[in-house]
């Protein structure tokens, strides 16, 4: 009983060896070289065909995988875009609801805590008292973004407050109310009317 080889021999090489063993022993040196060259040529041609087969199979596998990944990515991007639009819409609705819940509330500034005692609300040591509308943090932040241009419109008596949801700066010019959603729009308009 013979022991099996430790490594598995490649089919191409074992066929080449068996052919050379089955043939008659080479008589001259040139016959041996010719048979070796024929065996090498056979091995090379078989390797070329295997390489071509593997290349075709790999191309098909890669193309299918890439196509599947691209389709999945397109679906994910479409879903993400839809979700982002929905989030923006819901944030806007939440801000509107919060402002509607607060619109009848007033915030008082200029009064120390507990200073009222027995005094009436409007007589506090001659200090300035401010009454402002209670708004959501997002709306207050948007309004603060307009502070610099708002002062310029107040100086020319054109400022008419803010429109609620969405928060827009209101400016009166030539009998018409103009609405601005960004500071840049308002600045551009101010420059155009000051020229």
Automatic annotation (TrEMBL):
Superkingdom, according to UniProt? Answer: Eukaryota
Q: What is this protein called?
A: Uncharacterized protein
């Amino acid at each position: 009983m013979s022991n099996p080889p430790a490594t598995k021999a490649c089919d191409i090489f074992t066929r080449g060896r068996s052919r050379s063993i089955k043939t008659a022993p080479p008589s001259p040196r040139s016959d041996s070289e010719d048979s070796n060259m024929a065996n090498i040529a056979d091995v090379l041609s078989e390797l070329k065909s295997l390489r071509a087969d593997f290349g075709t199979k790999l191309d098909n596998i890669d193309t299918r995988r890439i196509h599947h990944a691209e389709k999945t990515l397109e679906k994910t991007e479409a879903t993400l875009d839809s979700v982002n639009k929905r989030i923006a819409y819901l944030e806007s609705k939440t801000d509107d609801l919060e402002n509607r819940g607060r619109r009848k509330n007033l915030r008082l500034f200029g009064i120390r805590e507990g200073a009222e005692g027995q005094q009436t609300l409007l007589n506090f040591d001659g200090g300035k008292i401010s009454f402002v509308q209670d708004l959501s943090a997002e709306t207050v932040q948007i309004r603060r973004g307009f502070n610099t241009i708002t002062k310029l419109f107040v100086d020319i008596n054109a400022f008419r407050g803010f429109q609620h949801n969405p928060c827009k700066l209101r400016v009166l010019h030539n009998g018409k109310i103009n609405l601005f959603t960004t500071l840049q729009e308002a600045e551009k308009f101010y420059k155009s009317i000051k020229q």
